[in-house]
Amino acid sequence: MKIVRFPSFHTWLFIPIILSLTACELTIIFRPASEDEQTGYVEVFTGTLTPSLTPSSTGTEIPILPLPGTPAPSLTLSPTGFSTQTLPTATPSPTTNPSSTPTPAEVYAIVSGHDGILLGAVHRGQWLDNDAASVRLQGGAHYEIYENSFFWGKSTGSQPFQITSGACSGEWAINLTPAPPTIGNFLALGGNWPFFPRIPQELTAKIEVYQQVISDLLLEQGIENPIVQLTQLLRIDLEGDGADEVIISATFLEGNTPQAGNYSLVVARKAISTGVQNILLKGEFYPFAQPDHIPHRFIVSNFADLNGDGKLELIVDGIQSNTGQTWVFESEPTAITEVLHLPCRTFP
After folding, report:
1. Nearest CA-CA partner of 185 in 24, 330, 346, 337
2. Residue 104 burial class via C-beta count within 10 angstroms: exposed 0-12, middle 13-18, buried 19 and up
3. In terms of DSSP H, where are the helices of 81-198?
4. What's the whole-model pTM score?
């Protein structure tokens, strides 16, 4: 029995708390010592109180449901205090022990909607890559499907399975029912929080300051007389702190193989305490032609809160024809860091 003294509220207070390792409840009862005193007592015991307690001048006896295989104890409450029968200890049933494998509600998957490839997952605040997520996920989980930030519908996911043929053989995927269209930028998310608390604003690509940012970066990478072609210019508050970041995509590719002066990149322009920082997220630069190489075309495919912390993650695709890679970046006050990488997925 545990007794705690704290200020009186002159009321009866019941607080049921579910215990994870037993099939019972922890019930706390507050009893003021008197209507005039400013202290009272809290009795803590295991069991389930029934029925609801009503104060009585003659005392109230409260039956307590016993734990399996134990006799029924009782608690008698009177105006002068508590009297209680000690509760026996019961061994938890094996069925109530926590499983070593998290339940679907604890693992929130991130799935490419149009092909079902598993980008990764979040488990108790930790990022899981494609392989780690596949062993923790179970079939029957529910997903919300979005095309960009627009809600498409809800689906149920299968047990993860490994792709055995094609360009992305070896990656893990999930069948979604119903399945979203195979053409479009669809994302299936297994969480239960607002995924899109903020939406990016598209800016005009002719803003000179951002063109200069890319020109300076290309010169640093050895590309002389660069041709600056901005493909995306997006303003968004990634962290929800009131300070906007600007995300710049730029691509200049000629033909199927890179020519001298070609490039593709994604840069985040972020305000920090010492000024503005330009962070290169992904990029390929070709000061010279590389006829045996297939270049990536980098684009920002989405912004979404993938782990429920209120911050927006940034999803970048690197596309080579109809296959490629995907990266997920997380924003912090002074940096933007990669948290997930899927080395192969398909693109419509």
Report:
1. 346
2. middle
3. 130-136
4. 0.70
